[in-house]
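Known limitations

Structure tokens in this collection are predictions and should be treated as such. Users comparing against experimental data should check residue numbering before alignment. To illustrate the layout, the record for Ig-like domain-containing protein is reproduced below. The input appears on top and the generated tokens appear beneath it.
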Amino acid sequence: MESSVFSSVPVQVLLVLLLGVSECLSLKITRLSIPSFVPNGSDESVLMDCEYTYSMKEDKKLVVKWFHDDDPNPVYQWIPELNSKLYSEKFKLEEDYEVPAAAPYTKFRAINIQKPTTELSGTYKCEVQSLEGSDTMEDTMTVYALPTSVNLNYTIADDVVRVVCEVEGVYPLPEMSLFQIKPKTVEISPLNDTELEYVLDDGAYDLEFSTIIPEDELPRPSDGLTFFGCSIEINGTEYEKEIKVPYFPNPVAAKQAGDDSDDTNASSFLKNLKYQADQRSLEVPSLFSITNKRIYFCRRNGRSLKELM
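Generated tokens:
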């Protein structure tokens, strides 16, 4: 008598093989495609795809759903057997988007978002169900917005210097740092004890990133020109920006009316500061003047005219 091919195969191995075959035939998501970062308001649509395997025989009443964050209402739902599709108006989906060369029970599985905006950032989950089982997979997408403006300035009051970096219209919150460049060097020294204040307005952040420095801890004017700087990065993108402004102590040249040599010294000091800035290709305040034997300067952003006593 000829023995069976499987007679010498242990029962445990056969069970494993059968379970493996069963698993291969069961409903399962095999690949989820979601872009990690996309620009705000892009003319290009954002395609999210959810690939899965299923059994035509076993997986009856197939349903495909997409969800956003913790919202229990689906962004999109498709029931192949009923040829039924539901769309969320919030997400501006392309209706009847069809995956090229896909089978009848998979061709409408993907979603295509038109002109994505920052409020559509978050976690997206694909859920596929049938009477025999279900599977889910999720990933995150960030719709980023580049800043509409970035300004760096400082104020001096009560022997304290407050350095502020202002950013408007950015999403998500960027990575930021404040730093100082001491006279006659290019070495960057981080400014610590920073504070971040922000508001979310119309899908983007307006923020202030600041620190406070005792005036007596900063270099003296006689040491040369000191600069404050602010650097900004948006994680996951190529956006990086760094700006610098020169620091002018209060006073720049403490001279009252009386001695013409005082004006000469003050004017020479300012020319020296401008020369150092030019050598480093850095910006300086746009206006210097000596009026009534006192020195004034206009900040680079033009928002404040301050008398330096």
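For this record: Residues 1-7, 11-24, 252-266, 283-309 have pLDDT under 50 and may be disordered. Helices lie at 11-25, 260-279. Please report discrepancies through the issue tracker.
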